[in-house]
Amino acid sequence: MRPSGCARTATDLAVQPVMVFIQAHITSADWRRREASTLAFGSILEGPSAEVLAPLVAQAMPVMIKLMKDPQIQVKDTAAWTIARICEHHIRSIAPEMWALMLRVPQPGEAAEVEGALFVGLKDHPRVASNVCLALHNLAEHCEASRDAHTNELSGPFVDLARALLACTERPDASDSNLRSSAYEALNTVLTNAAEDTKANVLLLLPVILQRLEASFIMQVLTAEDREAQNEMQGLLCGCLQVITCKLGPAIKPHADQMMQAFLQVFGAKNSTVHEEALMAVGAIANATEGEFDKYMPHFRPFLSLGLSNYEEHQVCQVAVGVVGDICRALEGKLLPYCDEILGLLLKNLQSPKLNRNVKPPILSCFGDIALAIGGHFDKYMHVTMSMLQQASQTTVDMEDDDLVEYLHQLQEGIFEAYTGVLQGLRADSKAEAFVQYIEGCLGLLLVVSTVAEQHGTTDDLLRASVGVVGDLASTLGARFKQMVRTSPYKEAVKLLMREALKSPSDATKQVAQWANSVTFQGH
């Protein structure tokens, strides 16, 4: 029963006639009717309120589990898809005993028939197994909020899930119905959102995945199809190793040499998708090994440069820019020998009309990462990078075009992040004087952003970045900046940005605004 005074929506009211159809045909002797009614139920799971659907889901789960053993593949396939939809939209409506029916693993001495429906489904026809992978992915997604807890819902079945999904990726028919990639995607989500008490088992998984990657190099490649299969396999395995590395952090160090050797071999393949995955995996290793990553740079540098020069596949270029950020944080001052080449490539990218515009904001932000890493040594690059930031600050777009406005906000956010990195890097090495001639350019952009914010609104990320720069200018340049910012029109513009940031729903943005306000306007 719904509480009195709570009106049903039109979508809620539409459920009833559909349910009449489903109940009439879900157990029909005609498999087409069983499949149609299962499809109908799966299709109404998004839209109607959880309150209306919760009791229906509870009633439907035993039926769906039973349909997973239907003699017709089409029915099993649709039942698995429907369970995946339930896991996505109504997971809290699944009773604990249903999980036992779906995820049970037979104990020694028990009959194989007691195995859970999802584990059985992973061994079924590729279409069915692929939808089971989606269900497991959706189940794991719901554990995101508890991934840092000591334990969560994935802890109990973790080993059995990982083992079953790995077995699924090695099926002879795993290339059908996108099964292999679905299984790895589900495994990656399970690994990402599993709790702390699974880390020992994740570490045991690392050499297994690494061994598979090494085995992929000796696969027999006779046709273009074979090459495609090898590339797909290597991309999936690099992606899995990246997830494991992010999960385990420094615990991967004993395997880092072997992993880097494998990734360097992957870069030898001329395939952009594989390069993208391998680059992200290398970025994860940089984060995990920190300063020790220095020993890999002479070998990795040529491939990083290739990635940064890849205008045609701009996603690869964008990932390479992100990896530069990872390496900056890992190496800090040890980055210096590579800065001429990296900065040269980044500046060339910004000037290239061939490069997709969406790569340009991360490049600007990357200047800040480099400056933060090398500190006062960045003064060598100040003139050329500041000129580029000033040029980017003058970008204007049609404010009626939402896509262009979004791009402008990202561009401006990237510029502010660059300024922040440069200011903090110079401050750390007592070279703040090098920034003085660029104060007006920075204030000019703050004026532009405040005007747009007042007239059209802005994003929380841009607000946080803009008030953060104000705080960094005040902290780094002291009285010289404070004098300027307390005069019109800068004072009004900065105060407006501070007010907006203090109203933000984000605690992080509010904290940055409070700090920036105190160091800029409350000190003397």
What does the model show?
- This protein is mostly helical and 524 residues long.
- The longest helix is centred in the last third of the chain and has 27 residues, at 402-428.
- The relative contact order is 0.04.
- It is globular, with a radius of gyration of 28 Å.
- Helix 10 (199-216) runs parallel beside helix 12 (253-266).
- The chain contains 24 helices and no strands.
Tell me the structural class.
mainly alpha
Share of residues in strands: under 5%
Rg, Cα atoms, Å? 28 Å
Order of helices and strands: HHHHHHHHHHHHHHHHHHHHHHHH
Question: What's the tally of helices?
Answer: 24
Gap from first CA to last CA: 64 Å
How is the main sheet built?
Answer: none
Low-confidence stretches: 1-7
Number of DSSP-assigned strands:
0
What would the average pLDDT be, to the nearest integer?
92
Gross geometry = globular
How much helicity do the residues have? 55-70%
Q: What's the oligomerization state?
A: single chain
Write a compact overview of the structure shown.
By secondary structure, the protein is mostly helical. Helices cover 69% and strands 0% of the residues. The N and C termini lie far apart (64 Å).
